[in-house]
Amino acid sequence: MPSTNGFPSKGWLKCSDISEGMFPNEYAVESITADNAEFSLFAHKTLVNEKEKLLKVTILDCRDDVCLVILPNEAYGVFKNMITVKIENISQ
Amino acid sequence: MILSNLEIIKAISDRRIIIDPKPDESQLRRLLNTTSLDFRLGNIISIPHDDVGVTIDSKNGIKTKTLKTLFDRKQITEEGGYTLRQNKFVLSNTYENISLPYTESGPNYAARIEGKSSYARFGLLVHFTAPTIHADFSGTITLELMNLGPFPITLYPNVPICQIVFEKVEGEIANSPSQFQGQTTPEGSH
């Protein structure tokens, strides 16, 4: 669980699914927001841990049980790259 | 404010702008313009299937899994290239990977992809609706290639295809989760 200071920092967001992307250097990644909205995005392979189903994100801050993160790309379903996610889905 | 070529070199040197593979000095000289850096075409073209009977629903979006099934991937070579016919649309990506790391202390940079005037005269678009490369982005740039001109255009990998204009981000980026709560649906992101 991330600390409450030292932001922004890099962290890992738990994903529900990871599969091949449209290009060989990317994955298609699915996860959920803090409001339980599903989203998906294409992310460069260096930003994805396929085995552990994790996506590298930049954590801007965490308050209570929610973190504000920057996704590596605009996500389908939420149509933006800054979203809130549940802190339980974040690891550092 | 748009970065000059000397400021681009400095930001690359300071790793505030990360280009991978990092161009050496002679490559940089070839790729730099006065206020932009050329990026080259990668070697994959993604070609949409015609007439698959799918409607893109802008309210509900589309899952990446579905999207990728609507395109065929084709590898192109420096010998054969890929000929983009008139009024055809394909996706590709840049040879270069770009990272614009966000830090609290800054300076932070965002960028925009632009076409090149030489291709523009023949009607080639390299993007038409999504030019912004946000601060903290990392990856290759997806190119929205469209031939609006009267002639077929043959594209080759590793040829400069677009230019990237860099801008310094002024001010802080909102960083409180409460500012973004309830804004993660399409309706909330207006």
Key traits:
heterodimer, A: 92 residues, mainly beta, six-stranded antiparallel β-sheet, three-stranded antiparallel β-sheet, 9 strands, globular, B: 190 residues, Deoxyuridine 5'-Triphosphate Nucleotidohydrolase, Chain A, nine-stranded antiparallel β-sheet, two-stranded antiparallel sheet, 11 strands, 14% helix, 35% strand, disordered C terminus
The CATH architecture of chain B can be given as Distorted Sandwich
What overall geometry of chain A do the principal axes of the alpha carbons give?
A: globular
What's the helix-strand series of chain A?
A: EEEEEEEEE
What letter string, H or E per element, gives the SSE order of chain B? HEHEHEEEEHEEEEE
- Write down the CATH topology of chain B: Deoxyuridine 5'-Triphosphate Nucleotidohydrolase, Chain A
Oligomer: heterodimer
Low-confidence stretches of chain A: none
Envelope shape of chain B? globular
Strand content of chain A: over 45%
| DSSP helix fraction of chain A | under 10%
Uncertain regions spanning at least 5 consecutive residues of chain B: 183-190
- Give the strand tally of chain A: 9
Number of helical regions of chain B: 4
Cα distance spanning the termini of chain A: 7 Å
User: Rg of chain B, please?
Assistant: 18 Å
| Chain-averaged pLDDT of chain A | 91
- Give the domain tally of chain A: 1
Main sheet of chain A? Answer: 6 strands, antiparallel
Characterise the protein shown here:
With 92 residues, chain A is mainly β. Chain A has one domain (9-91). In chain A, 0% of the residues lie in helices and 52% in strands. Chain A contains no helices and 9 strands. In chain A, the strands form 2 sheets. In chain A, strands 1, 5, 6, 7, 8 and 9 form a 6-stranded antiparallel sheet that branches. In chain A, strands 2-3-4 form a 3-stranded antiparallel sheet, with no helix packed on it. In chain A, a hairpin with a 5-residue loop joins strand 2 and strand 3 (26-32). Chain B is mainly beta and 190 residues long. Chain B has one domain (5-48, 61-170): Deoxyuridine triphosphatase (dUTPase) (Deoxyuridine 5'-Triphosphate Nucleotidohydrolase, Chain A, Distorted Sandwich). Helices cover 14% and strands 35% of the residues of chain B. Chain B has helices spanning 5-13, 25-31, 64-69, 117-120, and strands spanning 18-20, 37-48, 71-75, 82-84, 89-99, 109-114, 124-125, 132-133, 138-147, 153-155, 160-168. In chain B, strands 1, 2, 3, 5, 6, 7, 8, 9 and 11 form a 9-stranded antiparallel sheet that branches. A two-stranded antiparallel sheet of chain B has the order 4-10. The longest helix of chain B has 9 residues, at 5-13. Residues 183-190 of chain B have low confidence and may be disordered. Chains A and B meet through strand 2, strand 3, strand 4, strand 6 and strand 7 of A and strand 2, helix 3, strand 5 and strand 9 of B.
